[in-house]
Amino acid sequence: MNTNIAFGVIISFLFICLIVLFCIVIIKLYIQKIKKYNAVLYENEITFQKTLNSALLESQEHLLNNISQDIHDDAGQQLTVINFQLEHFKLDWPDASADLKPVSESLTNLADTLRKVSHSLNNQWLSQNGLIKAITQEVERIKKNKFIEINYVEPTSVKSFKPEEQIVLFRIFQECLNNTFKHARANQISIVISQNPFSISIQDNGVGFDISQLNASQGIGIANCQQRAKVINYHFDIQSQPNHGTQIILYELT
Fold first, then answer.
1. What are φ and ψ of residue 4, in 5° steps?
2. How far apart, in whole angstroms, are the C-alpha atoms of residue 167 and residue 225?
3. Residue 208 contacts by C-beta under 8 Å, 6 or more apart in sequence?
4. Tell me: the pLDDT tens digits for 160-196?
5. Which SS3 state, helix, strand or coil, does residue 113 take?
6. Would the pLDDT of 48 be above 60?
7. N or C: which end of the chain has fewer CB within 10 A?
8. Cβ-based burial of 174 (10 A; exposed 0-12, middle 13-18, buried ≥19)
9. Which tens digit of pLDDT belongs to each residue from 76-124?
10. Which distant-in-sequence residues (6+ apart) come within 8 Å of 246 by Cβ?
11. CA-to-CA distance for 6 and 11, rounded, in angstroms?
C-alpha cells in the first residue's frame, strides 16, 4: 500500500514537473516570438524613417539646387553687367577711375562670394568636387568674417563617400556652422576631420547652453541632424555647458 502511494506521489510530481516544463517552454517561445515581432517592427520603422528622410533630403536638395541656379544665372549675371558698365564708365571718365576702384573691388568680392554660396547649395558641384573640398571652400568663405578665428587643416586624404553620404554630411556641417554663428557668440572655432572611423568635430568657445533645458522648438535642429545622421549610419553627438562652449562630433558607426 505504501509502495503504491509513493509511486503515485512520484508520478504526480513528475506530471507536475512536465506541466511546469511545458509552461516554461511555451513562455520562452512566446517571448522569442514577441522579440522577433518587435525586431521586425523596429526594422520596418527604421526602413520607413530612412525612406522618409531620403525623400525629404531629395526634395530639399532639389530646392537648394534651384536656388543655386538662380543665384548663378540671375544675381551672378547682373553683377557681371554692373561690373561691365562700371568699367565702361571708368573709360569714359578716367578722372573717376581711382574713386571707383573700391566699388569695382567690392563687386568682384561679392561676385566671388555669391559663386561660392551657389557652389555650397548645389549638390552637383559637391558630387564633382567631393566633401573635403566643399568643406574647405565653406571654411574659406566664412574666414572672411574677421570676428571669428577658424582653426582648420585640410586633410591630405580621406575615404571615398557615397553620393547621399557626402551630401548629408555636408548639410549637417553647414547647419552646425550656421547655428554657431547665430547662437554661440564665439570668436574661435576649431574644425577637425579624422579617419578610421571618419569623423568631423566642430568646437567653439561660445556661451554654450544646457542641453537638458532645450524646449521642443529649440531642439528641432539637433533632432534633425541626429535623424539625418542615422540615415547614413552616422552618429551625431553634441556636448555643451553654459559658458564652456559647444562641441559637436559627427562620426561613422562601425
1. -65, -40
2. 13
3. 184, 240, 241, 242, 243, 244, 245, 246
4. 888 888 888 988 998 898 888 888 888 899 999 998 8
5. helix
6. no
7. N
8. middle
9. 667 666 776 777 777 777 777 777 777 777 777 777 777 776 666 667 7
10. 180, 184, 203, 204, 206, 208, 209, 238, 239, 240
11. 9
Q: How far apart are CA 249 and CA 193, in angstroms?
A: 10
Distance (Å, whole) CA 139 – CA 51: 31
* Interatomic CA distance for residues 112 and 106, integer angstroms: 10
- Name the DSSP class of 212: G
pLDDT of residue 190: 95
Q: How far apart are CA 59 and CA 53, in angstroms?
A: 10
pLDDT tens per residue across span 203-253: 999 999 988 877 666 667 788 888 889 888 899 999 999 999 999 999 999
Beta-carbon contacts of residue 188 (< 8 Å; ≥ 6 apart) = 148, 149, 150, 151, 204, 205
Decide if 137 contacts 152 (C-beta within 8 A): no
Residues 214, 177, 174, 246: is their CA dihedral positive or negative?
negative
Report DSSP letters for 18-51, one per residue: HHHHHHHHHHHHHHHHHHHHHHHHHHHHHHHHHH
Specify the amino acid at residue 122. Answer: N
**SS3 assignment, position 146:** coil
Q: Coil, strand or helix: which one is 235? A: strand
Nearest to residue 232, comparing CAs of 49, 62, 60?
49
3-state secondary structure of 103: helix
